[in-house]
Every structure is written in structure tokens, then in C-alpha cells.
Design goal:
This protein is mainly α. The chain folds into 3 domains: 92 residues, no CATH class; 82 residues, no CATH class; 102 residues. It is elongated. The two termini are 32 Å apart.
Length: 296
């Protein structure tokens, strides 16, 4: 999504919120100063956008940052200011003079006692910047749940923004000690770039008793880390009429995107893929088979 689309989505979401059209009165009742009051109220309206150039942009960014950091400001105003700031941050060159102050403000919000939504947004903004303090906070919450500022799935997602964060061991530990499927899925997404995950991915992918979402994520991860090993396992899955159609479709789809066409010199597999392309029970399986057959 480009900046314009992101901004349209932001404005549409604000317009759809209950009470947005009458938000001016709510803001007027709060302690927000006159300049900030006008900026935030305009952002809450349906047709007004924050200027993108000149002194107006700088003035508005500074005012919005003051609003989001003001614990006495109406929560509606602070949340609107946060959304506007994160949109403005996409304008990298124009936002650059304000980035240090923005990150400092996000660190103020990324702590216990902050409104949960604002805290989450602040942590995400910091994680996207690969901020070491945000990574420390997120890792601490995963190791000591009573100190977590966001749910474990969210923490793993944010830590995954930095491929070099070095959290593979932590993610692997979390995967093995939790029974929560959504947390296991989040851990596997983090592990997708860690070479030490190959054995786990192979184990999950070949085990039909595992949840299919974990097998599908393992297929993606193993294909990324070791395409040759994945291709051999995927072939067995495709040939197995007793395996699940969605897993077979995932395997076929990955094979169709591989550099080499695995069908070359493998008549048995070719016959099976042709069969699945015609007789596959699910549209996704037939479509994946068709893409692989058409592959040069």
C-alpha cells in the first residue's frame, strides 16, 4: 500500500468510528491547546488532510507529537494523533527532521500504564525502526509474561521485523513450551529465516498429526531454507493420496515457484500432478497442479 492509499484507509477508518462526526465537541471539552485542538479536529473530519509540504507540515507534526505524549489530552485525540504521525512517517524525507523526537515520544509511550492501543502502536513504530530498547521490552515480555506489554503473538510479529534481531532461540523455546496454536504459528514465522529451524520444519511437514497451519508454515520455511530437501518431501506429499488437499496444494504451489521444474525426468510425479489437475477435490489443488504443469 503506498502513502496515498494508506492515508485514504486511515481517513476511512476514522470516518467509520462511532462519534467521529461529533468529535470536535469531545475535544473542545479536553485540555488540548488551541493549535493542537484544530489540527487533531481537522484530522478527525472526513475531508481534511494534514499538509505534506512546507512549514505547515512541520508545525502539524510537532503539534501531533505533543498531543500523543500528553497524558491529559483526550484519548480520542491522542489516538488520532498517533495514526496521523505514523502516516506522516511514511514521508521519509519530510519526516526526517522529526524522526528523533518521534522515536523518543514512542519510547515514552512503550511502557506499563499507557493505553494498550497507544502502547502497541508505539512498540510497533519502534520495532519497525529496529529500536534496541523496543526489542528488549518485547523479548522481556516473552520471557516473563507478567511483564509483557503486548500479547506474545504481537511481540513475535514485531520482533520479526528485524531479521538480525537474533531471537531464533527464544522463538524456538516458545514454540516448544506453548500449547497455543496462534503463538506456535507466530514463532514459526520468526523461525522461517533461521537455518537451525530446518529439522523442526521437516518434522512438522512430514507429520500428518500436526495442525495443518503449522505444516503449511513449515513448507514455506523449509522451502526457503533448503529448497532441495523441501522438494523431496513435497514430492512424497503430492504422491500421497491420503494427505490433506490443502497441504498438497501448498507443496505444489511452492514447487511451481521453484527455479527448476521437478517434473522433468519424473514420469510418476508428472502423471500424479496431471491427475490432480483434473480430478483434484479442491480448486486450490487443481490450480496449483495446473501452474506446475505449465512451468517451463
Amino acid at each position: 500500500m503506498d502513502v496515498k492509499d494508506y492515508r485514504k484507509s486511515f481517513e476511512a477508518a476514522l470516518a467509520a468510528k462511532p462519534g467521529v462526526r461529533n468529535s470536535g465537541a469531545a475535544l473542545a471539552a479536553g485540555p488540548v491547546g488551541g493549535t493542537v485542538h484544530g489540527i487533531v479536529r481537522s484530522l478527525l473530519s472526513r475531508n481534511v488532510r494534514m499538509p505534506e509540504t512546507g512549514d505547515a507540515f512541520s508545525t502539524n507534526v510537532a503539534a501531533l507529537l505533543a498531543t500523543v505524549r500528553d497524558a491529559n489530552a483526550p484519548l480520542l485525540a491522542r489516538k488520532a494523533a498517533m495514526r496521523a504521525l505514523r502516516t506522516a512517517a511514511f514521508l521519509a524525507e519530510k519526516f526526517a527532521p522529526h524522526r528523533a523526537a518521534f522515536l523518543a515520544g514512542m519510547r515514552e509511550l512503550a511502557q506499563s500504564g499507557t493505553d494498550p492501543e497507544l502502547c502497541r502502536d508505539a512498540l510497533e513504530a519502534l520495532a519497525a525502526e529496529k529500536d534496541p530498547e523496543a526489542q528488549r521490552i518485547l523479548e522481556l515480555g516473552l520471557r516473563e509474561p507478567d511483564k509483557a506489554l503486548v500479547p506474545p503473538t504481537t511481540a513475535l510479529q514485531f520482533l520479526g521485523y528485524d531479521d538480525h534481531a537474533g531471537i531464533a532461540d527464544l522463538a524456538l523455546d516458545i514454540f516448544h513450551r506453548t500449547a497455543d496454536l496462534s503463538i506456535k504459528e507466530a514463532a514459526l514465522r520468526v523461525l522461517a529465516g533461521a537455518s537451525k529451524s530446518q529439522d523442526l520444519f521437516e518434522q512438522l511437514l512430514t507429520d500428518k498429526s500436526q495442525p495443518r497451519s503449522l505444516r503449511a508454515l513449515s513448507a514455506t520455511g523449509l522451502n526457503f531454507l533448503n529448497p532441495e530437501k523441501f522438494a523431496a518431501i513435497a514430492r512424497d506429499i503430492v504422491m500421497d493420496d491420503g494427505d490433506f488437499d490443502d497441504i498438497r496444494a501448498t507443496s505444489l504451489g511452492a514447487l511451481a515457484n521453484a527455479k527448476e521444474n521437478i517434473l522433468h525426468n519424473d514420469q510418476s510425479l508428472l502423471s500424479q500432478v496431471v491427475k490432480l489437475g483434473i480430478e483434484g477435490a479442491h480448486d486450490s489443488l487443481r490450480a496449483a497442479a495446473g501452474r506446475l504443469i505449465k512451468k517451463p
